[in-house]
C-alpha cells in the first residue's frame, strides 16, 4: 500500500471566527477517517449523506500543449506529463475559517517529459531542434493558497474551493535534457546543455512560472472535488 501524501508535519488548525479557538478535526468533517484518505487502494463509496471518497488520486499529471515565446526563445510543447505526485509528502494543511483560506504545502521529486520544438535564442545563444525533453525537478517545494466558500446541498455543507495561488521552490539542481538539438550536432548540443544546466535557476524562474501554474490546475481540481465530497459538521454539536 503506497501513500499518495504522507503527513510530515500535520498542522491542521481551524479557527472559528466567533470563539477564536482550535477546533478538533473530527468536529469539522463528517468523515472521521479524513487523516486516512491518502491511500492508493481507497475507493469512492456511498452513504446516506451521498457519495464520499477516502482517496486523493493524482497519478500522472498531464496537459496537451503549452508555448513559451519570450525574449527571443520559442518553445512549443506537446504531450506534457508530470510524474511524482503519487510520492508527494504533505508538509502542511491548514484551514482558516476567519478569512476562508485553505493552505496546502507539500514537496516531491518531479520528472517532466514532453515533445518539443524550439527555435530562436536562449541565454544569448541560438537554439533549434525538436524531440523529447526530460527535466528532473528534485525536491520541489509547492505551496497552494486557496480561498473557499461554503456550499449547501440537501442540508449538508461542503467547502467549495474557488481558485488557487501557487508558489514553488526547486531545492535540488535541475537537469534538462533535449534529445535533439542542432540537427544532432553533439558538440553544439553539449555546449547548450552545459549552458542551460549551469543557469537552471534562471531558466526555470524566468520561463517556468506560468508553466507551473498550468501544472497546478489539475492538482487544484483534485482537491476541489475531494473537499466537495466531504461534508462539514455543525461545530456546536461536536
Outline the fold blueprint:
Blueprint: E1 6-7, E2 44-47, E3 50-53, E4 61-70, E5 73-83, E6 89-96, E7 101-122, E8 125-126, E9 129-153, E10 156-161, E11 165-170, E12 175-178, H1 186-198, H2 200-207, H3 209-229
Parallel strand pairs: 1-6
Antiparallel strand pairs: 2-3, 4-5, 5-7, 6-7, 7-8, 7-9, 9-10, 9-11, 9-12
Q: What descriptors fit this protein?
A:
two-stranded antiparallel ribbon; disordered N terminus; ten-stranded mixed beta sheet; To_sf; Circadian clock-controlled protein; signal; Bactericidal permeability-increasing protein, domain 1; 18% helix; 12 strands; 238 residues; alpha+beta; Haemolymph_juvenile_hormone-bd
Descriptive overview:
InterPro entries: Haemolymph_juvenile_hormone-bd (IPR010562), To_sf (IPR038606). Residues 1-19 form the signal peptide. Keywords: Signal. The chain has helices spanning 186-198, 200-207, 209-229, and strands spanning 6-7, 44-47, 50-53, 61-70, 73-83, 89-96, 101-122, 125-126, 129-153, 156-161, 165-170, 175-178. By secondary structure, it is an alpha+beta fold. The chain has a single domain, classed as Bactericidal permeability-increasing protein, domain 1, CATH 3.15.10. The strands form two sheets. Strands 1, 4, 5, 6, 7, 8, 9, 10, 11 and 12 form a ten-stranded mixed sheet that branches. The radius of gyration is 21 Å and the shape is elongated. The relative contact order is 0.18.
How would you concisely characterize the structure shown here?
The protein has 238 residues and is an alpha+beta fold. It has 3 helices and 12 strands, in the order E-E-E-E-E-E-E-E-E-E-E-E-H-H-H.
Amino acid at each position: 500500500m503506497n501513500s499518495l501524501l504522507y503527513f510530515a508535519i500535520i498542522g491542521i488548525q481551524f479557527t472559528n471566527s466567533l470563539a477564536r479557538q482550535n477546533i478538533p478535526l473530527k468536529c469539522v468533517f463528517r468523515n472521521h477517517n479524513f487523516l486516512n484518505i491518502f491511500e492508493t487502494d481507497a475507493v469512492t463509496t456511498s452513504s446516506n449523506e451521498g457519495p464520499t471518497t477516502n482517496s486523493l488520486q493524482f497519478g500522472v499529471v498531464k496537459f496537451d500543449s503549452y508555448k513559451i515565446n519570450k525574449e527571443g526563445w520559442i518553445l512549443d510543447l506537446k504531450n506534457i506529463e508530470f510524474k511524482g505526485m503519487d510520492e508527494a509528502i504533505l508538509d502542511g494543511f491548514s484551514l482558516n475559517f476567519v478569512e476562508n483560506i485553505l493552505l496546502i504545502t507539500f514537496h516531491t521529486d518531479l520528472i517532466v517529459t514532453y515533445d518539443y520544438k524550439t527555435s530562436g535564442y536562449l541565454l544569448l545563444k541560438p537554439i533549434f531542434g525538436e524531440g523529447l525533453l526530460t527535466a528532473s525537478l528534485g525536491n520541489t517545494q509547492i505551496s497552494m493558497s486557496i480561498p473557499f466558500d461554503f456550499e449547501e446541498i440537501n442540508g449538508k455543507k461542503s467547502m467549495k474551493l474557488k481558485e488557487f495561488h501557487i508558489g514553488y521552490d526547486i531545492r535540488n539542481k535541475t537537469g534538462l535534457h533535449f534529445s535533439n538539438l542542432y540537427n544532432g550536432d553533439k558538440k553544439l548540443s553539449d555546449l547548450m546543455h552545459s549552458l542551460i544546466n549551469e543557469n537552471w535557476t534562471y531558466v526555470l524562474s524566468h520561463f517556468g512560472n506560468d508553466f507551473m501554474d498550468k501544472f497546478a490546475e489539475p492538482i487544484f481540481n483534485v482537491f476541489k472535488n475531494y473537499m466537495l465530497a466531504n461534508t462539514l459538521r455543525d461545530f456546536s454539536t461536536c
